[in-house]
Amino acid sequence: MEFEGFHGTDFDNHESILDLNFSVSAAEDDWLGTGAYFFIEGISDPLLDARQWAKLQAYDKHTRTNRYENYAVIKAIIDVNNVLRLDQQEGLIAYNVFRNYLLERMKADRIKPKVNAIRNDCEVCNHILQNSEFDAIVNFEYIKLDEWTRVKKYSSRIATCRIMSVKEPKASIDVTKLSVVERGRV
Fold first, then answer.
1. Cα separation of 168 and 150, whole Å?
2. Is the pLDDT of residue 114 over 90?
3. pTM of the model
4. CA–CA separation, 146 vs 150, rounded Å?
5. What percent of the chain has a predicted confidence (pLDDT) above 70?
6. What's the sign of the alpha-carbon dihedral 166, 167, 172, 178?
7. 3-state secondary structure of 109
8. Is it the case that residue 80 has pLDDT exceeding 90?
9. Dihedral angle over CA of 139, 144, 146, 151, nearest 10
């Protein structure tokens, strides 16, 4: 199954990505678990979403300065065999089977849940990726893609975009098909 994905990043990263492929994010609050993240078609324009993401990620709230001045948006052709589609009923049913299994284990072992929903969901997604044949996870997500919603901490349960987390980019993305489709100043 082939997807076209857009990834926004610091312009200084583009050469290593084009040469070596994407690295995975492994934070405990990633939306769809450990993976390389892409905006894909579904609700909004994924190229615009990747641009906004790259621009907003430049800002460091601790130093109140930009970590980088220029951004790049990289287009990838993602070829995956098994995708957990949380944007479809069948995928949600599978997700709930995994979540219920983890919940029962947590209850039995008296493990407290994580502090918030994103961290709990990330834990379930990581469990799925580690214990199944899924190469990627797709979902609709609410992501703050403008400064005002981030500064004012606006929150919503209704998605603004569709994203994909790819478990092993080197297995799913051919670097010879990567291209920088946009670059600009933050």
1. 30
2. no
3. 0.95
4. 7
5. 100
6. positive
7. helix
8. yes
9. -170
Q: Is 110 left (phi over 0), alpha (psi -120 to 50) or beta?
A: left
Residue 71 Rama label (left phi>0; alpha psi -120 to 50; beta):
beta
CA–CA–CA angle 32, 14, 42 (5° rounding): 40
Cα–Cα distance, 163 to 166 (Å, whole number): 10
Q: Which of 80, 105, 82, 111 is nearest to 94 (CA)?
A: 82
Q: How far is CA 111 from CA 80, 106, 126, in A?
A: 34, 5, 17
Report which residue type is found at 72.
A
DSSP labels, 34-73: SBEEEEESSSS-HHHHHHHHHHHHTEETTTTEES-SEEEE
E strand or H helix that includes residue 165: strand 161-166
Amino acid at 182: E
CB atoms within 10 A of CB 159: 16
3-state secondary structure 122-151: HHHHHHHHHCCCCCEEEEEECCCCCHHHHH
The pair of three-digit structure tokens given for residue 1, joined into one six-digit string: 């199954």
